[in-house]
Amino acid sequence: MQYLKKSFEGMEPYFSKEITDGIVLNANEAPYLPPKPILEEFNNRIKCLNFNRYPDMQNTKLCEAIAKKYQISKENVTCGVGSDELLEVTFRATLEPNDVVLSFSPSFSMYKVFTELHNAKFIGIDFNDDLSFDVDAMLKKIKENNPKLVLICSPNNPTGAILTQSEIIRIVTNTNALVLLDLAYVDFAKEDPTYLALKYNNLIAYRTFSKAMALASIRCGYAISNSNNIDMINAVKAPYSLSIPSQILSELAISNYDLYKENINNVISERDNLYSNLKKLGINVYPSEANFIYVKMDKKIYDGLLENKIYIRAFTDEIYRITVGLKEENEKLLKVVRKYAK
Amino acid sequence: MQYLKKSFEGMEPYFSKEITDGIVLNANEAPYLPPKPILEEFNNRIKCLNFNRYPDMQNTKLCEAIAKKYQISKENVTCGVGSDELLEVTFRATLEPNDVVLSFSPSFSMYKVFTELHNAKFIGIDFNDDLSFDVDAMLKKIKENNPKLVLICSPNNPTGAILTQSEIIRIVTNTNALVLLDLAYVDFAKEDPTYLALKYNNLIAYRTFSKAMALASIRCGYAISNSNNIDMINAVKAPYSLSIPSQILSELAISNYDLYKENINNVISERDNLYSNLKKLGINVYPSEANFIYVKMDKKIYDGLLENKIYIRAFTDEIYRITVGLKEENEKLLKVVRKYAK
Predict the structure, then answer these.
(1) Model ipTM?
(2) Torsion angle, CA of B81/B84/B89/B90, rounded to 10 degrees?
(3) Hey, of B40, B41, B51, which one would you mutate to test binding to chain A, going by the most A CBs within 10 A of its CB?
(4) A with B: how many residue pairs have Cβ under 8 Å apart?
(5) Which of A202, A310, B146, B204 could pair covalently with B225 via S-S, beta carbons 3.0-4.6 A apart?
(6) Mode of pairing for the β-strands spanning B100-105 and B319-323
(7) Pairing mode of beta strands B284-285, B221-224
(8) DSSP E strand boundaries for B54-114
(9) Residue B135 Cα distances to A137, A175, B62, B130, B141, angstroms
(10) How many whole angstroms separate alpha carbon A78 and alpha carbon A74?
């Protein structure tokens, strides 16, 4: 790659093999489709779409629908190609070389990638032994490092733990940094701290249609904050990024959020079942408020799952993340675990 | 915007008002829809789509369909959210602060924006008086400035002129820079130099589904080059950027390119009609091989068009770009021009 700039040396294309057969529990996707009335209305609208025209670059209707759901103004909302794009744009808008980015660790792997893309310094803060958040350690690191950005993923990917609202507030009010609150999995949690992003000037909440809304295929996410922070993202973001079909489908999904409740509740109860069953089988499991469970277990179990075409996410030879699937998928997984856990 | 970094100071959100009524000839969109068989097949495939799953991040089927059309390997192709994304990623992958980027000027406005985003130096090279490309001036600037990137848009937006293949080769073989050849409008031109991007190591061709393919709504573009350059773009590009609906529709479009030929030929003959009619009316027009015409004319004509809800692109009070529309749209435009040109 002769033209790649020096600071990017060693970067390689990211490659992931598409799985076309088996039980896919490795990407924290919803195991269900969007509710039928949403898809039917989408199919109707697609039929008379002006495919030859550029999208509305302000995503006006979608921003309005999101604003309506949270009872906020559309000036407090912006949309992007997944919350990834909006996170990356925020890094790009704010980070100068050698700035410090703090994050609990392990967390969403792109935080470190985005930091390094901008030649900034990433510091990860370990979780407590029970994988709860160590807020004191974060506050100490904030004092020591004067970070430009603080990342919080809650429920945390891949561990599943949450920060309480008072813990979030404690971090936000004890730093001058901009705090990025990634709420990708919050629909599966007991509390929703999104509204805090309008109470504190240095807080942006990021949400996605890729998880609970069952729309990973269309790559759409949004950010909520005061209009200054939203303007900053919009100033740096590429115009025209969201396709019209993605805008339409997301708008229908958020406007019909209630239709998802049954599906979401099913995942929550399946998650809690899976947790107790794995525990009974002697697997080290950690409490989760997301649609996945973080486990420590023997590699032979993972190999057994693979052999049975059940795909979970492997971090090391003993650390894995299992996305909660449909009832029958989880049962099949448990059957295999039972066989190999002995 | 308190958190925006200093080097981005002055950046503002880009705002464009959506036009919902009238004749839209300001964005170089196709005036026709994609051919019916393509849309019908798309509607069928959408009905059974796994909306809850992430897209194939390698865009495998789409890359294969593009590779098939050009009889090249899929390793020579990558796709993105419009060719804009791929151009921006190439700038990001290669530019260090103070690097020089050369482009003919005026050209696609984002080249300068992307350059400045990376704190590099943009140098624009004027066209000849008849708005043909001044290749000698480009070669002189290459010698003087040792650029990192050279941008060529052919047919050029907004002027419509093209560089011949031998002129492109002359530039490519006289620089160490990476040459980015933006072919967004090439379907409307006499020659297609895309294949040159596999003959010269320092050349990447960029193409889009937004113009002749009548798919601006779905934001899809692609780049063609040797696998080293394609790997470089893939290494820096965000994974998962293209939605599944966008991948499917683009794949159908490129696989059925022949179905577009009649539409494309109509635009070409409408363009040539519009050109001669505008000339007859005493308007300064420039030869174009794209789906638009660059004109110098009195502002009162532009105001008259606006009054009649005919929207063209204004660069200054005397320089405009008119996208070629449907026959009846062009006739309406000519009628208004005739009235105000006197």
Answers:
(1) 0.96
(2) 140
(3) B51
(4) 216
(5) B204
(6) unpaired
(7) unpaired
(8) 77-80, 100-105
(9) 61, 55, 35, 14, 10
(10) 8
